[in-house]
Amino acid sequence: MSGTTDSYKTNFTETKDIVFKIFRYEPDVNPKPHFDTFTVPVVKGWTVLDAVMYIKENLDSTVSYRASCRMGICGSCAMEINGKPRLACQTQVISELRSKEVVIKPLANYPVLRDVVPDLTPLIEKHADVRPYILRKDKKVEVNPKGELYQTPDQLEEYLQFSYCIKCGACLAACPVTGADVKFIGPQALTQSYRYSVDTRDDGFKLRLEVMDHSHGVWHCHFAGACSEACPKGVDPAFAIQLFKREITARKFGKEVEPARLARQPADVKRRENIPYAPEKTVKQ
Amino acid sequence: MKTVSLEKRTLPHRLGIGGWAYGGRYGLERYLFILHRIAGLSILLYFILHIFITGQKINGKQAWDAVMGSVGGTWFYIGEYLLFVAVAFHAMNGIRLILSEFGWILGKPKRPIYPYQSANMRIRVFTWIMMILAVIIMAVGGFDFFLMH
Ligand code: SF4
Ligand code: FES
Fold this sequence. Notes:
The structure holds 2 protein chains of 2 kinds.
Chain A (H helix, E strand, L loop, with lengths): L1 H10 L3 E12 L3 E14 L4 H12 L18 E4 L2 E4 L5 H5 L3 E5 L6 E3 L2 E2 L2 H9 L9 H5 L9 H8 L9 H5 L1 H5 L6 H11 L7 H8 L13 H5 L6 H16 L33
Parallel strand pairs in A: 1-5
Antiparallel strand pairs in A: 1-2, 3-4, 3-5, 6-7
Chain B lengths: L17 H4 L6 H28 L5 H10 L3 H28 L17 H4 L1 H24 L2
Helix pairs in contact in B: 2-4, 4-6
């Protein structure tokens, strides 16, 4: 295993010793949480995830963490790094943290499974609660639309920013309200609820209000803005929630929105011969 | 026979109300959030005290004089000024919150292109202006409270 790190070293010879203090919780071995300290010869360009992998491969194989893509896409590696929730794979040790000591803890506000691995069940459950998919009154259109639903580029911009969420959970760790109110829906789910509710193709605004429009929903957000500061993808959950408050208020005052129509199939157009047909559906509808 | 426990043995890690005071290295607004709550609760506390104290009037002059005598000291005077500080902060921060919580001053959603700029950062200057206004009001109030009387 150490071959990987060795080849790194031959490419970039200059290393800098950085002290990593990692939160440890091993329910089977030592249920008392504590910190372990490791000195890692960090190479320029290493991310915190590289350093944690180095520790697991060379210094202590029992250190547990969660990661997958190593490129800020999967959202698995969020942890608290030097006092802020960040993606370990997107945080440069030398040029970004600029500190001789790096303290790594699991994300706050989630139960800890082991070391820096949080149990993200609350995030996933709340996300599911807001029905994060297109809802339509006409179930046929919702499940198997016979054409595209109209949407202009401007209408797309209304929610596009909020659709970049990778479910890393950093925002819930940052949110002071989530920390104190277990029932609070939380920045991630509220943002996704807004993202679908203002999508012109969707017709589920009223349905989602059941989960959103109460004291543990949008109205419990007090715009502390920490979620947006923590979000590694620029989703800006705090912004989405404030827009959601505005939209809910506007709809209470009578604003009505018609969901997008199904685009009609052009009738008398002939298909060009050289276009191949789509493969057979593998799932029967 | 060896049995395996399927019970999750997780460690609770909820920051709770303690997390309001400190949750990590966050910017200004997270601290304004907690200050806003403290200021709001102090104003509420004052309001209850105020109703109780002025309510003593119905028990006659003696009761009124007794209660007024007990709240007239220097500490209460300083307390009244602190209440004024709380009101000034709560009002100025409240204006910022009303304007932003309805999304009126936050602009439009933008595609996230690195380095990201949150809506809160877009109005940071406005936030600072409101805070400076609050401090000016507190200073003018302090002048009136302590130097004019
Ligand atoms: S909104 Fe941002 S911080 Fe929250 S889960 Fe999505 S990507 Fe992570
Ligand atoms: S490992 Fe996938 S986001 Fe970091």
